[in-house]
């Protein structure tokens, strides 16, 4: 059984993963080759990479610009730096095999989640978290929009904010969401949670609320998503798993909940005395519900 690692994945590899969802098939093929073979790319010439990855040199040129490099040489230099760093865990849900024993499967599941948390911390934009905290603290109303598995994150956030006396509303139904976002105002904060940033209901309500003047906050795990277009503040985590992996790994949900816990703690500390009063009152109420 492999030992768990908490070394952060190099930012360039995180960046590639976060942009794969909107790449062309050829660039996606190249991205997968690079992620699987990055240790072999030191000093590799563009024609050699084209041959080994099975794409054209033109695709490679477009790819490096897509992920933020001015030219191919700058990309190769950065990849050389990647290979001087300590190796990070290669375990993932996708590496689980039918003949793996229980300890091995558990190790892979834990390793992937730990790696994703570590990677998220390495790229976390704390300035944006502070900006989100200030907006929420000053809000007249807080609306949260989510669907599918993102509801897990949304319900966790709603409960956290509720314990601080902020009374957020969570909308998971398209019609209920449309009504709420249509009535949004400048004093309101609207939070849209979508791992891939493409949930139609979430994006539509973020767009509608922003037009009404509300401050919009997006929580997502990928770059260049439709959700970002209608967000004043974008809070991003890392999702290290393959987009088409059938198990629906929990990595993105876990990292989003942890990131939003940072936001919750900062809100709590803004007025600890009042926060303690609300939290203690809610604790007493919850205790009454226990046997």
TrEMBL record:
PROSITE patterns xref list: HTH_RPIR, SIS
SUPFAM superfamilies the record matches: Homeodomain-like, SIS domain
DNA-binding recorded as keyword: yes
Gene3D superfamilies registered for this protein in UniProt: Glucose-6-phosphate isomerase like protein, domain 1 (3.40.50.10490), Winged helix-like DNA-binding domain superfamily/Winged helix DNA-binding domain (1.10.10.10)
UniProt keyword Transcription present: yes
UniProt domain HTH rpiR-type: residue ranges: 10-86
Domain SIS, chain residue ranges per copy: 132-273
Residue ranges of the TM segments: none
Pfam families the record matches: HTH_6, SIS
Entry keyword set: DNA-binding, Transcription, Transcription regulation
An example Gene Ontology molecular-function term: DNA binding
An annotated GO BP: carbohydrate derivative metabolic process
Protein name: MurR/RpiR family transcriptional regulator
Organism: Extibacter muris
């Amino acid at each position: 059984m492999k030992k768990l690692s908490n070394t952060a994945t190099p930012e360039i590899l995180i960046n590639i993963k976060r942009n794969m969802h909107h790449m062309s098939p050829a660039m996606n093929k190249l991205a997968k080759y690079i992620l699987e073979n990055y240790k072999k790319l030191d000093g590799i010439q563009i024609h050699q990479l084209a041959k080994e990855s099975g794409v054209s040199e033109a695709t490679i040129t477009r790819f490096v610009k897509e992920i933020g490099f001015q030219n191919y040489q700058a990309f190769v230099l950065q990849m050389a730096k990647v290979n001087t760093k300590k190796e990070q865990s290669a375990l993932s849900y996708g590496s689980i095999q039918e003949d793996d024993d229980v300890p091995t499967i558990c190790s892979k599941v834990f390793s992937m989640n730990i790696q994703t948390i570590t990677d998220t911390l390495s790229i976390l934009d704390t300035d944006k978290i502070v900006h989100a905290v200030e907006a929420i603290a000053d809000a007249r109303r807080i609306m949260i929009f989510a669907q599918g598995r993102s509801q897990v994150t949304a319900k966790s956030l709603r409960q956290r904010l509720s314990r601080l006396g902020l009374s957020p509303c969570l909308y998971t139904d398209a019609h209920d969401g449309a009504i709420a976002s249509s009535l949004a105002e400048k004093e309101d904060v609207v939070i849209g949670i979508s791992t891939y940033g493409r949930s139609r209901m979430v994006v539509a309500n973020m767009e509608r609320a922003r037009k009404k003047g509300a401050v919009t906050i997006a929580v997502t795990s990928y770059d260049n998503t439709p959700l970002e277009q209608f967000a004043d503040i974008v809070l991003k985590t890392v999702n290290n798993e393959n987009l088409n992996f059938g198990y629906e790994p929990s990595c993105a949900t876990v990292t989003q909940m942890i990131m939003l816990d940072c936001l919750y703690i900062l809100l709590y500390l803004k007025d600890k005395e009042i926060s303690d009063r609300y939290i203690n009152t809610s604790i007493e109420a919850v205790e009454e519900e226990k046997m």
